[in-house]
Fold this sequence. Notes:
The protein is of the alpha/beta class. 43% of the residues lie in helices and 21% in strands. Strands 3-2-1-4-5-7-6 form a seven-stranded mixed beta sheet, sandwiched between helices.
Amino acid sequence: MGRSQRSWDTDALPTGADKARAVQDMFDAIAPRYDMVNRLMTFRLDVRWRRATVRALQLPAESLVLDLASGTGDFCRELQHHGLRPLSFDFSYGMLAADTSRAPRTQADALCLPVRDASVQGVTCGFALRNFVDLRSFFAELSRVAKPGGRVALLDVSVPTNPLIRLGNSIYFGRIVPRIGALLSDGPAYRYLPRSVSYLPPPTELSKMLAAAGFVDVRHRQLSGGLTQLLTGTRR
Length: 236
């Protein structure tokens, strides 16, 4: 697809099937330098956020955990570090090709996983909720694959509630991150990513959606002053 035709390189955010294609194409494009850009633009806070997410699972060693939108395997490596057994799933072949975690990996749509009902103890997902076409369907799929008592931990960007942090975050991710992305990777993709937070419902709605899908003990919290958010729950 030509640079001027790419569906994430527009003022309007894509929806439906257009969004699915845009997300897949975009992550294929940025996969080779994804880790490097992530570390730079988050000042390595992404490492701390993933560690907190895996700890929030509170699962015993050897538990089988799906990592959805697994990217280059950062979450899989963190899960392995905690003695858990990850399975890597991503919509983007480019990301899976760049995965160095050595976890078993499969290209798949997170809304329709090639996984048996009630077969895993846990699910993680990092920075991808805003990229799914239908969050309710995604939460229903989590409910389908998780065993009763299984845990999910979902990490994504957030909008800080503190006005000063929110202003600084808006300037940094709205203006500086796209420049870093353009310099080191793909400019249009890193202009899209900060804007994509608008896809996310408010925290209370996210929590209600997860509870409606069959999860209890649903908890939402902000990390690092609200730069990111972590949603957890236990399969009823």
